[in-house]
Amino acid sequence: MQKSCLPVVILFCVVGIGVLAYFLGKRNGTRTVDHVALNAAFVQEVAELSSLEVQGTASIKTTNIANDGSLSDELKKMFTEQTLNISVPYIAKYGVDLAAQQLTIEEKNKQVYIVLPTPQLLSYELRLDRADAMTRKGLLVSPGEAAYSTVEKKLYTGTRKQMETYTMYIEQAKEKIRKVLELYYVPMQFKVDVVFKDEIKSKVNTPLN
Fold first, then answer.
1. Residues 194-202: what's their mean pLDDT?
2. Range(s) of the domain holding residue 35
3. CA 209 to chain centre
4. Which of 21, 40, 100, 205 has the largest CB neighbor count within 10 A?
5. How many domains does the structure of the chain reveal?
């Protein structure tokens, strides 16, 4: 199954289970609905599958040329220049990691309060097979794969560090998780409040207090 189909499958599963829980609740009373509403294992699976995938291009340029117009710089361009400009597409995934942390689910008066770990960068991959590189070398500089590899590693390390703290993508991941979990509870007629751990400090009391 291709990745592009996964969100659609998740939404169908969420709606299907929610509708099933609603009708089971109608038939067997509210206990079944409450049980599904507080099903931590399923909520965990929904949250983990609701990760956000983003794509873009990472770039880096290294050079030993100052471009200051000096005679020494012009001579360096001719004989010893080493300029490398690389652009590489990337794929990054943001979501919640529940392997070492647990979620919290509380329910009261048809309202569900869920606390999840703050979304983080789960994976980051440079598509080196689609890299676009431009090099300029002086007459005395021989081609070297070692220099190219060093720049690639620098690009990966630097851009990954930036992506780990990219607020916009983290907030987008939060919004996506919230929407999917809200959709899960709609057929059961539960209101849901999804809060992430980095937001708790700004909330003195939980909605269920």
1. 85
2. 3-202
3. 32
4. 21
5. 1
